[in-house]
Specification:
By secondary structure, the protein is mainly alpha-helical. Among the domains are: about 80 residues, no CATH class; about 110 residues; about 50 residues, no CATH class. Helices cover about 80% and strands about 0% of the residues. The protein is built from 16 helices and no strands. Helix 10 runs antiparallel to helix 11.
Amino acid sequence: MADPLTAEIPNTETVPLDTPDQAGEKGPFRSDPRLLVQTCLLVLAVLTVCYFASDIILPIVLAIVLKLLFQPAMRLLEQLHVPRTLAALLLILTVFSVIVGVGAALSGPATAWGEKLPGGVQRLEERLKFLSQPIGALQKFLHQFDGATVGGGGPTLAETLMKGTQHFASGFFETILILFFLLVSGDTFLRRMVEIVPSFSDKRRVVDLSQQIEENVSAYLVTITLMNGAVGVATGIAMWASGLGDPVLWGTVAFLLNYVPIMGPLVGVGLFLLAGLLTIDPLWQALLPAGLYLGIHIVEGEAITPMLLARRFTLNPVLVIISLIFWFWMWGVPGAVLAVPMLAMAKIICDGVRSLNAVGHFLEG
């Protein structure tokens, strides 16, 4: 069945995306310097807006990425003749129910582990005596910092956490609201863009770019989510087998951390190492949870996932690291999660616009 978007465009001209410009450009990556300068200025302006208006921009970007993640499910429900409004509502309610259910299931184990932390520093000092001096310095610093915040009239830790929770709840509600209307609107924005663009070749380019972004980013997000789920299941089983307990808690932690490439697994190794040292007596066995988690991540991150995504994404790993650091600085943890999808979108757009092919080639791994 033909795509309704492309079917609406009269077939009066056939211009592929990689057709050379009529101006006589030579070489596969010849670009217009003025367009590159204008693009750089536009990127700087957009990044400035993203920084100062993060409370507004971040929920919108997150909703767009989630819309791409849910798009395959929306198409499936449409094939089953479910109305778009009802389909969007069902998807959002399902995701919200899963989040609430997992949160309720994890509240007990998370509280129990939180109660172990106050007395855990002394246990760590006993087991890692060669680190006693750095740990003591850290304790002294934290004590002085807490005293300074209380004595100086600044916000306490509880107030900071409460403010962060309220900010997260507000951003989450905005994301869900925007996501609902994006799912209901479907291809409305793309149709309006096709109507605005004057020439047929530009209309085809807009449609092709939109389809490439949706197809590739949706495939990336679905693949990553499935692989993260497999990592979570494997980690939960490994933690239960190693004696750490609470497989649901640790499996969920591994699932969430795996959304942040490189930095997430590093945090996970440290977290499982700390948990093992706090609860398991033999030192070699206390190191086992972190070792098992690291092995699972190496198998998934270095073999399975790259093999599944090799045909769609070949991003420069150095630029991936830079993107993670930059967006983590810009938006925190949500920025680190969105860094790779946004970098992939940028590469797809640059590959589809001939004047920006050089940038797309630079982003390629």
